[in-house]
């Protein structure tokens, strides 16, 4: 069964309310990194009906990704941006999915995310996280940034929280756990952090500035 755009949108309005859905329809969100955090964030936002998603990742799907990232075995070897776009189309084919299979750098980040209302940082490495945050704070002075920091291991999900830093930077996670400490990344805890990021994005799109 394939719903029409009108049918699917009516279902979203019924669940979310017309005023909220109108704001989501008009919104654009960038996601830098489409791994455990980014792929799950994108799924949440597609289910909300966020009108435009800018999806950026240079990497391809590997078997080591399957324990926590929103991919399946049939995606192995494919660019993450393409594989994720195809999944999102199955959820809501009527949104605008703008995909880039490229590495985010200080030079291209401002252009990639220039028209986004919010940008999600979803990288694995600390240096990449710092690069993107510093670049966007400097070059996109009106754009809020939602970032992940600390979701490794099997500690309590209750330790993961969202905090506001500075004026427009929001950090989601426990703030301490790190795979460098010898603990792995596991699906439930990564998904909890992704849900925190997606929830903060939702709040920002609706005009709330506090976690």
Molecular structure report:
- By secondary structure, the chain is an alpha/beta fold.
- It has a single domain, classed as Rossmann fold (3-Layer(aba) Sandwich), CATH 3.40.50.
- The protein is built from seven helices and seven strands; from the N terminus they run H-H-E-H-E-H-E-H-E-H-E-E-E-H.
- The chain has helices at 5-16, 18-25, 36-48, 80-91, 109-112, 126-139, 187-205, and strands at residues 28-32, 52-56, 96-100, 118-121, 145-148, 161-165, 169-173.
- The protein has a seven-stranded mixed beta sheet with strand order 3-2-1-4-5-7-6, sandwiched between helices.
- Helix 6 links the parallel strand 4 and strand 5 (145-148).
- Helix 3 (36-48) crosses helix 7 (187-205).
- The radius of gyration is 16 Å and the shape is globular.
Task: Describe this structure in a few short sentences.
With 211 residues, this protein is an alpha/beta fold.
Number of domains: 1
- Tell me the CATH superfamily: NAD(P)-binding Rossmann-like Domain
The helix-strand sequence is HHEHEHEHEHEEEH
CATH fold annotation: Rossmann fold
Cα Rg: 16 Å
Structural class: alpha/beta
> How many angstroms separate the termini?
38 Å
What share of residues is helical?
25-40%
Count the beta strands. Answer: 7
| CATH architecture name | 3-Layer(aba) Sandwich
Main sheet: strand order: 3-2-1-4-5-7-6
Overall mean pLDDT: 96
Question: What sort of overall outline do the alpha carbons produce when their principal axes are compared?
Answer: globular
Q: Give the number of helices.
A: 7
**Low-confidence runs of at least 5 consecutive residues:** none
Main sheet specs: 7 strands, mixed
Query: What is the CATH class name?
Result: Alpha Beta
Oligomeric assembly: single chain
Beta-strand fraction estimate: 15-25%
